[in-house]
Amino acid sequence: MGVELRGLTVRFGSTTALDAVDLTIPAGTVCGLLGRNGSGKTTMLSVLAAFRRPTAGAVLVDGEDPWENPRVLQDVCLVRESGDVLADLPMRENLAYVAGARPRFDADVAGALMDRFELDPAKRPDRLSRGQRSAFGVVVGLASRTALTLLDEVHLGMDAPSRYAFYDALLEEYVAHPRTIVLSSHLIDEVQRLLETVVILHRGGVLLTEDAETLRGRGVSVTGPAEAVEEFTAGHQVLSRQQLGRTVQAMIHGEVPPEAAARAVASGLELGPVDLQDLFVHLTAEGPR
Ligand SMILES: Nc1ncnc2c1ncn2[C@@H]1O[C@H](COP(=O)(O)OP(=O)(O)OP(=O)(O)O)[C@@H](O)[C@H]1O
Hints:
Layout: E1 3-12, E2 15-25, E3 30-35, H1 41-48, E4 56-61, H2 70-73, E5 76-80, H3 91-101, H4 107-116, H5 130-143, E6 148-152, H6 160-176, E7 180-184, H7 188-191, E8 197-202, E9 205-211, H8 212-216, E10 219-225, H9 226-233, E11 237-244, E12 247-253, H10 258-266, E13 270-273, H11 276-284
Parallel strand pairs: 3-7, 3-8, 5-6, 6-7
Antiparallel strand pairs: 1-2, 1-4, 8-9, 10-12, 10-13, 11-12
Helix pairs in contact: 4-5, 5-6
Bound molecules: adenosine-5'-triphosphate.
């Protein structure tokens, strides 16, 4: 299921959370929805899942308005960090409920993920730790196998090993059963390897939408002896710089002509793609709202 937003506006009283947003998310992609606090990510995902009606504009999921649309909504799953499950029912019953609502739900996948995250199906979500509740949200989101899966900061409470298990599970599931997955996250360093397309929201608008490879091509990382790196980066906009002993790694914004890149490599410097997090900080840096 692809997504198309045309002039999407959502207001909360005097606050405009989304301001005339036009956006296309193609079907069958893992899309990273990035943005600073309050940029409108949760609002956008809530509208896509028909949890909320827009103030103005059009939302099309698989070509149709999702609002009160059973055909579309049975194949759309939004999981938020809060879990979106029945907190006072054992997880086993929660999964049975989800299975009844989601035609593509896969009980074997759910069972395997429950084991992977060491979740006891007899336990109720309101008796779990924060990270375990997040992990259960991941189980519901991935095992539902919906054509549009919206994961809103779902991994925020999970510890590092659980988050990496989540990333692996997401990729395995996506490869086995391609679908459209929109993942909102502040952990850009960690999730960047999963993303095929990136949407950056900023102050209620789309700052950019690009495929991840093109975005990484908007800058270069250069690593090597301090003096050589300083010489190479002179005249470029440096996004970040880290030094370990005499070795420096710097991220620069902008393209490097092929001849300059070849000279740098010949002189012993290592060039690579820019770090998405540094680029994000640079593109959205205007101070707090
Ligand atoms: N129910 C609400 N009532 C009033 N204002 C709201 C409501 N929900 C969101 N907002 C406002 O809308 C804007 C966008 O909020 P939203 O939750 O979509 O941002 P976000 O990008 O998900 O942020 P974060 O990264 O902090 O979770 C913010 O200014 C927020 O204060």
